[in-house]
Amino acid sequence: MRVLVANHPLIAHKLTYLRDKETDSPTFRRLADELVTLLAYEATREVRVEPKDIVTPVAPTTGIKLSNPKPLVVPVLRAGLGMLDGMVRLLPSAEVGFLGMQRDEETLQAITYANRLPDVLTGRQCYVLDPMLATGGTLAMAIRYLAERGADDITAVTLLSAPEGIDAVAEELADLTIPITLVTGAVDERLNEHGYIVPGLGDAGDRLYGVV
Ligand code: URA
């Protein structure tokens, strides 16, 4: 798995305010949205394109356009939803699928509770959105799910990642031969005994949507 840690002062600035426990939900949502758009710019560096002939007011020329099939953006419910708008702002023609996964707070294992995705993803480039790469269980399961349905290039976008989670995902998916990339805003110190990223930002779902 290729890991790209976005290194940009604007990203570090927004992450600092996102981490702050004094930041309220509306501000947290706005910052997460802005951060994703910056990360999406990195994540789509290798989005597939094809030539497109056009005529400017001055002369004919050849540019590029996104290839078909269009990329598929897959937010992992629920916290991944907070990243969707920021991602499709840069990729408005992308299709969107949903995967509902959550971790069992006792075992820290990921379970799937909802799935709204095309059955066949052959040849699709997919972007998986999940703000926190903690133990890696959910993300590895989501990526494997897409790969088993034929996706042949998968990029995960996370706001924060734990080193343990990155290692776990890379190890868990070592048998996959397709390109897998992780684009993340920062790699934090570690996971604590409750599976939270340290220093992290707390529970991303709760901070986005409240404790429900
Ligand atoms: N999920 C979160 O929302 N926060 C963490 O720190 C770890 C997993």
UniProtKB/TrEMBL annotation:
Annotated uracil binding sites: I197, G202, D203, A204
Domain Phosphoribosyltransferase: 5-210
Cofactor entry: Mg(2+)
Chain positions recorded as 5-phospho-alpha-D-ribose 1-diphosphate binding sites: R78, R103, D130, P131, M132, L133, A134, T135, G136, G137, T138, D203
Gene3D superfamilies listed in its UniProt record: 3.40.50.2020
Annotated keywords: Allosteric enzyme, Glycosyltransferase, GTP-binding, Magnesium, Nucleotide-binding, Transferase
Superkingdom of this protein's organism: Bacteria
One GO cellular component term noted in the UniProt record for this chain: cytoplasm
S-adenosyl-L-methionine as UniProt keyword: no
Activity regulation statement: Allosterically activated by GTP.
Entry's cofactor comment: Binds 1 Mg(2+) ion per subunit. The magnesium is bound as Mg-PRPP.
Biological processes, Gene Ontology terms: UMP salvage; uracil salvage
UniProt-listed InterPro entries: PRTase-like (IPR029057), PRTase_dom (IPR000836), Upp_B (IPR034332), UPRT (IPR005765), UPRTase/APRTase (IPR050054)
Pfam families membership: UPRTase (PF14681)
EC number(s) from the headed UniProt entry: 2.4.2.9
Catalytic activity entry: UMP + diphosphate = 5-phospho-alpha-D-ribose 1-diphosphate + uracil
Pathway annotation: Pyrimidine metabolism; UMP biosynthesis via salvage pathway; UMP from uracil: step 1/1
Enzyme class at the top of the EC tree: transferase
GTP-binding as UniProt keyword: yes
GO molecular function: GTP binding; magnesium ion binding; uracil phosphoribosyltransferase activity
Family affiliation: Belongs to the UPRTase family.
Functional summary from the UniProt entry: Catalyzes the conversion of uracil and 5-phospho-alpha-D-ribose 1-diphosphate (PRPP) to UMP and diphosphate.
Protein name: Uracil phosphoribosyltransferase
Organism encoding this protein: Branchiibius hedensis
